[in-house]
Amino acid sequence: MTVDAELVAMMNAVFADHRTAHGPTAGPELWDQLRALGLARLTGAEESGGSGAGWHEAAELMAAAVRSGVRVGLPEHDLLACWLLEVAGIAVDDNTRTVALLDESGTATAVPWASTAQRIVLVWRTQTGEHRVADVDAAAVRITAGANMIGEPRDTVSADVPADGATVSEATVTTLHLKAALVRAVQVCAAMDTILELAVEHSSSRIQFGRPLAKFQAIQHMISDIAAEATLARTATEAALTAAVDTTWSAPHLEFLVAVARSCCGHAASVVVRNAHQVFGAIGTTAEHRLHEYTRAALAWRGEFGSVRSWDERVTTAALQAGGAGLWELITS
C-alpha cells in the first residue's frame, strides 16, 4: 500500500518543525498539534473520535518522528493503548496513554512513557485465567521512573489490581504483543534508513586525501553493507506488516513473520551502527553530530518488547516445528 504523498509530507513537516522549535522531546504543544491534525489517534475508529486510518499510515507517522529525531510515545498511545480500549469496549478520550502488562504482583517493568502519560491502560490475568483491561488515571498507580539509553521513559508501574475490568481474549493479548514488537521493528528500520542517508551524504561530501570518501573502496563496501542490511530488515518488516493488515492480524504464521522481522532488525542494527561510525570516524562519535541519535536509538529499540535472542529462538522453533516438509510453506506463506 502506498501512503498519500501529501500526507507523508505533512507528517514530516510536523516533526521537523517541532524539532527545530522545541528540540527532540515531545511536549504538550506537539500533542496539541497532533490532535488538531487528526494524527494523535490516526488509526482510531472514526465513531470513537479517531481518524480511521490504518497501520501503513501509522508506520509512515512513526518513521517521520524517527527521521526528525523527535521522541514521542505516539505508537504506544494510538496503536497499543487506545486500540486495546476500543477492543475492550472502553471509551477513549484525548488523554495520552500507554499500556502496562501487570504480573502476579501487580507490577510492570520497562513501561514506555508511563511517567509522561496521563492515563495507564492496565492489563492483567485473573486467577481464573481471564485477561482484563482497565483504564486508570496515572496518579492512581505508583510509577518509578526509568529510561532507555536514549532517554525515553521506561518506567516501573505498580498498581493495586482493580476489582473489575473489561474482559479481553487471549488472542487480543497475543495481538497486543505482536503489535508492540512490530512498532519497534518499524522504528528500527526508520532509524537505519536515516543512518544510511547520513552515511551516503557524508561520504559524498567529505574530502580526504584529495577525493571524496565515497571514492574509497573500503568505504563503498561499508555503505553497501549498511544498505543491504537496512533493506533486508525493512523488507522483512513490511512483509509482516502487510500480512497483518491484509488478514486483520489473523494470518496463520503471523508470529513467525514478526519474529523474522525482529530478528532481521536486531542483527542488521549491529552491522549498520558499526559501519556507520566507521564511515564517519571521529566526527560521528561526538555529541554534537546527530548520528548517535539514530545509532543509539536502533540499538535501544531492537531489544524492547523482546530481545534479539528471544526472537531468534522463535524463528528457530517455528522452523523446527514446520520440519522439512513444511519449511518452504512457512517461509513463503
TrEMBL record:
InterPro entries hit by this protein? AcylCo_DH-like_C, AcylCo_DH/oxidase_C, AcylCoA_DH/ox_N_sf, AcylCoA_DH/oxidase_NM_dom_sf
Q: Looking at the record's lineage, which domain of life comes first?
A: Bacteria
Q: Which UniProt key words apply to this protein?
A: FAD, Flavoprotein, Oxidoreductase
Occurrences of domain Acyl-CoA dehydrogenase/oxidase C-terminal (ranges): 183-301
Q: Which GO terms describe its molecular function?
A: acyl-CoA dehydrogenase activity; flavin adenine dinucleotide binding
Classification via Pfam families: Acyl-CoA_dh_1
Q: Which cofactor does it need?
A: FAD
Oxidoreductase recorded as keyword: yes
Q: Which family does it belong to?
A: Belongs to the acyl-CoA dehydrogenase family.
The protein here is known as Acyl-CoA dehydrogenase
Write down the species: Mycolicibacterium smegmatis (strain ATCC 700084 / mc(2)155)
Organism lineage reads as: Bacteria, Bacillati, Actinomycetota, Actinomycetes, Mycobacteriales
